[in-house]
UniProtKB/TrEMBL annotation:
Residue ranges of domain Acyl-CoA oxidase/dehydrogenase middle in the record: 130-225
Native organism taxonomy: Bacteria, Pseudomonadati, Pseudomonadota, Gammaproteobacteria, Litorivivens
Any single GO CC term annotated in Swiss-Prot or TrEMBL for this entry: plasma membrane
Family per record: Belongs to the acyl-CoA dehydrogenase family.
Protein name in the entry: Alkylation response protein AidB-like acyl-CoA dehydrogenase
Domain Acyl-CoA dehydrogenase/oxidase N-terminal intervals: 7-125
Entry annotated with the keyword Heme: no
Acyl-CoA dehydrogenase/oxidase C-terminal domain segment(s): 238-387
The entry's keywords: FAD, Flavoprotein, Oxidoreductase
Cofactor(s) named in the record: FAD
Molecular-function GO terms, alphabetical: flavin adenine dinucleotide binding; oxidoreductase activity, acting on the CH-CH group of donors
Amino acid sequence: MKLSFSPEDEKFREEIAGWLKANLTGEFEKLKFRGGPGDEHTYPDERVKWEQKLAEGKWTCVGWPKEYGGRGLSIEQQVIFFEEYARAGAPGRMGHIGEGLAGPTIIAFGSEHQKQKYLPGIVAGTELWCQGYSEPGAGSDLANVKTKARFDEAKGKWILNGQKVWTSLAHESHYCFVIARTDPESKAHKGLGFFLVKMDQPGITVRPIEQITGTSEFNEVFFDDAECDAEDIVGEPGDGWKVAMGLLGYERGVSTLGQQMAFQNELDEVVKVAKENGAAKDPVIRQRIADLYLRLKIMRYNSMRMLSDDAGDGSLQKEALIYKLYWATWHRELGELAVDVQGEMGQVIAAEPYELTRLQSLYLFVRSDTIYGGTNQVQRNIIAERGLGMPKEPKW
């Protein structure tokens, strides 16, 4: 990918930047720079309204094909959209799981019935999704899932039983895509199914997990004879692993550039505090700021290369394997710097109601970045085995 944009692309940049400036006002003004990591619990109702405002302007699902409600934007213009969205301080997306993961997966692997049933609600910002992958004994080791799905011939439905954990915004979601074992005798990645499950039904219980930030955007989800329509399994029984791996590829998509702009906003806030309180005069602090700045630029260039060198079928090349390890480590270090530039004030709360500041919350939340979505150790194994062709780690 070129590191510059065409005149047409720059005209598009002006369009989206202008729309955001005109619409992030009034009732949406307070949402600026809110709803990011560690702050996802803020203004959920207002951010749902913002999703629908985006939909009115046709700014949801911009990379989707036009026939499914998207704009069919080029990679370059998608990059511009996500960069300008973050630059404007627009809020964390309530619909990002549906738009970035569920929708593209349904488009790639789903039936026409599933596309007609689920895609319009995602585009309209009226139906939110969550992800049912991790379990108490199957976090980074996704192939170890224990949740079971059996087909009830009398009802003509799949019946799900099991537990998922670390399910972001499950309490706000209308649907969940769930990996479950369709063959009770199967092991590892075989015998799995990929299900589209309605959350508001008997047999599904959502319990919040309180984090060290004091917030609860993560949840446990329990399935006790929860039902899924026969036509709501994506692919065939046994295709679950293939579909799940296809979905994970979308986590390394163009929205990563928007993520990096959000990182830049956080770094800018840290630098502002360092300048205001004099911490920027400390040579060690200055060097840490410079190091994070340079590594953020490297992250951008690697992402541009990652996105341009696709395999021709929408999948990403092996370079994409490094991305999660790289950004998670970077973000954790930014959180540590955020506290250090505040000195002793970074470790205390001045007065009631004893709520964490934005930078304190950032520091605490990013401790999880190197754990969820595959721990750093697992990411290194993936790079070694899939990227470099090294022998697999021995099973004990």
